[in-house]
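Quick illustration, no need to memorize.
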Amino acid sequence: YADKSNTISFTLQSTSLTIAAAKDSVIRSNPFVVNIQGNSQTWYAVYLDGADSSDVNPFIAGGQSGFQGYLEQIGTYEVEGYQTAAVFETDASGKRVIQYNTNASTEDKTYTVKVIEVVESSYNETTKTIETPNGADYDTVKVKVEKGAVTISATGDGQYYIGQEITLSGTNTDSDNVYLFI
């Protein structure tokens, strides 16, 4: 009822849990990120669904914001692979960006990254397990890890003479080492 009161407007909306990848595919030895959108300051478990422990899988990078701890079991699901599952807390806007790293040995295949809501009190830091309620909200996204390639080309028309300088150029997106044999 004041003479000069300010008007404040806001929008109420419900949020649903979503996960999206910044890229659909990545060449191994490069990282990829997934973006979670959910409720404000809520705990979520993020893991590679169906990952095989005998494979070299992408792993969650250490030291990320919102990180609460790594997991070995989610409900009845045993997590396969070292540091492939963790609990993260979303920020005040309900978002969290999570980075997975790959290396030259990471299996080239499509991985399913799954996010599921966690009841905070169900996280057991000692056993690295969480309980998930029946019907818990979840979402998935697929990311393909691909082998890199090695290319090489030489200057000129392909005919060379003894003593002639030949410039070789190329790329290696698969490893840190290149071996040339003549």
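The mean pLDDT is 87.
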